[in-house]
Amino acid sequence: MFAAVGNKVIALHRQTIGAVELDVPEGQWRYLTAAEIGSFYPKNSEA
User: Fold this and answer.
1) Reduced DSSP (H G I as helix, E B as strand, rest coil) percent helix, strand, coil of the chain, to 5
2) Domain ranges for the chain
3) Which of 39, 40, 44, 47 has the most CB atoms within 10 Å of its CB?
4) Model confidence over 17-46: pLDDT tens digits?
């Protein structure tokens, strides 16, 4: 994706994103759980 716009990736730092922990080996992937997907959306608060 970066190469498509003329950029070169020299180093990549993996980290957590919200409540999602990146717990798979480099080059691998996994589906997000329903709870992880839900953590990206704000909770409804009733005032």
Assistant:
1) 15, 5, 80
2) 16-41
3) 39
4) 888 888 888 888 999 999 999 988 888 756
